[in-house]
Amino acid sequence: MPIVTVLQGPRTPELKRELVQKVTDAFVDSLGVPADSVQVWIQETPPESWAIGGTLTADK
């Protein structure tokens, strides 16, 4: 059972639906596993909780 973890900033439910479908399809196509065996976990971090180059992404 493949488990995929996606770390990202907040996205709309529509974008997350598209993402998990495409990730699932990629595993089905490349590994030949059944779609219902693929788990995709999305962990969202708000912009004020991560930084790039010493600056919070919320401040960019």
Automatic annotation (TrEMBL):
Keywords: Isomerase. It comes from the Bacteria. The keyword Isomerase applies. Gene3D superfamilies: Macrophage Migration Inhibitory Factor. The keyword Signal does not apply. Residues 4-59 form the 4-oxalocrotonate tautomerase-like domain. Belongs to the 4-oxalocrotonate tautomerase family. This is 4-oxalocrotonate tautomerase-like domain-containing protein.
